[in-house]
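Table S2 (continued). Query chain:
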Amino acid sequence: MGGSRFAATRSYLSNVEFGGVPDTIIPKGAQAESVTGARFETISTLIIGKEGKTIGAAYNGQEVVTVTERAGI
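Corresponding output:
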């Protein structure tokens, strides 16, 4: 019995909400893991806002995708 697999693909998440202590810096390349074990990495430095959250993007794999950061962050 033969078969083949599809090639692996990269995933990109946009508008991800990160929460924490205001003014905390999340460096570019910071990693997080989903409940299913997929690892994602931030593509830019983020700073937690006064309300305790910020919006950013993350990817898994080697390809870096450029996004526009939200004003005021």
